[in-house]
């Protein structure tokens, strides 16, 4: 009977465990439904901005087309009226000459003295009319101005209105203290708020990962610390099967530099705890060379080297950030992924 009692107790405990996991799935399901609606609204809003931009460009181009059409039509109409008046005057003169030719010679000579006489030149237009002016260049609409590489030219203009970042922040990894911007490019620390439980999420500290992992090649990005005095910037191995380790250091797969409140120095997360730089840095540039196994940090403003890790990262690593709370609660500081400088290189297609 004792064995049966123990078995019964064990089964009930397991049933509770299964029930707990089931409730977690229910929570995730509710979260996904709410997120789906929010993301759908955000996607529609982003496309509305693009549509407004395209509509404005379309209207601007059509307005220019109508203005050019109107200007050239007015010019052409003026030329046509002038030519019509001159043509009619010539026809009237020809008709009058035809009538005069029916007069006798004396009357005709009285009406038409020597046209080349200096004393009494002929006032008739038939002798003084010039040749019509040739049609000048540029009277046709500049079609190439409106249709030449139209989509490409609009796309290049669009580059000036959009922001591109090397990667987005992953909100599914954000600890409950963190608030991620709608465009997923910045994050700040505030009061703890409940969030759905999922294995990728940090729970012991205000950390977040980037959405893109790197395992080969060279990659670089810049981080604007926004006046934070308690921060970490680096890379981390991805989550695997178990909860995140409470201790984030090089031995547990975290490589970063950090700064603490009240300190005038920046340090690295290696076991030596060596001093990396003095002062609180405003902007950090990260250079990750997966092939060579190097992770370097630079002061982006001063363009000076801070620290370099020489490690075998052992697979994919993700950008890693710790966003500590601000001492001034009323004004939370924001960490931001700096946008890329996008350049268009034009070349002949071969």
UniProtKB/TrEMBL annotation:
It holds the Pfam family PRY. SMART domains: PRY, SPRY. Residues 147-340 form the B30.2/SPRY domain. It comes from the Eukaryota. SUPFAM superfamilies: Concanavalin A-like lectins/glucanases (SSF49899). InterPro entries: B30.2/SPRY (IPR001870), B30.2/SPRY_sf (IPR043136), Butyrophylin_SPRY (IPR003879), ConA-like_dom_sf (IPR013320), PRY (IPR006574), SPRY_dom (IPR003877), TRIM/RBCC (IPR050143). This is TRI35 protein. The lineage of its organism: Eukaryota, Metazoa, Chordata, Craniata, Vertebrata.
């Amino acid at each position: 009977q004792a064995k049966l009692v123990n078995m019964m107790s064990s089964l009930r405990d397991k049933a509770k465990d299964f029930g707990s996991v089931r409730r977690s799935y229910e929570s995730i399901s509710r979260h996904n439904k709410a997120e789906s609606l929010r993301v759908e609204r955000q996607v529609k809003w982003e496309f509305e901005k693009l549509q407004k931009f395209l509509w404005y460009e379309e209207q601007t181009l059509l307005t220019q087309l109508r203005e050019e059409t109107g200007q050239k039509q007015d010019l052409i109409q003026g030329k046509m009226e002038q030519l019509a008046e001159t043509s009619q005057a010539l026809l009237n003169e020809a008709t009058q000459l035809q009538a005069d030719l029916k007069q006798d010679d004396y009357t005709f000579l009285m009406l038409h003295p020597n046209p080349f006489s200096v004393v009494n030149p002929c006032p008739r237009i038939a002798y003084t009319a010039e040749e019509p002016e040739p049609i000048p260049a540029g009277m046709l609409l500049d079609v190439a101005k409106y249709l030449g590489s139209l989509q490409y030219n609009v796309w290049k203009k669009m580059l000036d209105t959009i922001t591109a970042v090397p990667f987005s922040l992953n909100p599914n990894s954000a600890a409950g203290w963190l608030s991620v911007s709608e465009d997923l490019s910045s994050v700040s620390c505030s009061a703890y708020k409940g969030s759905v439980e999922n294995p990728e999420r940090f729970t012991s500290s205000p950390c977040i990962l980037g959405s893109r992992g790197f395992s080969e090649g060279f990659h670089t990005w810049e981080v604007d610390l926004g006046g934070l005095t308690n921060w970490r910037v680096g890379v981390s191995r991805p989550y695997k099967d178990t909860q995140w380790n409470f201790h984030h250091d090089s031995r547990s797969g975290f490589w970063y530099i950090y700064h603490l409140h009240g300190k005038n120095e920046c340090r690295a997360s290696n076991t030596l705890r060596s001093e990396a730089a003095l002062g609180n840095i405003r902007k950090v540039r990260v250079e990750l060379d997966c092939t060579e196994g190097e992770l370097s940090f630079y002061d982006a403003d001063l363009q000076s080297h801070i620290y370099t890790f020489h490690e075998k990262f052992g697979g994919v690593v993700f950008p890693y950030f710790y966003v500590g709370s601000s001492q001034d609660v009323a004004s939370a500081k924001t960490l931001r992924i700096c946008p890329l400088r996008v350049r268009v290189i034009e070349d002949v297609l071969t």
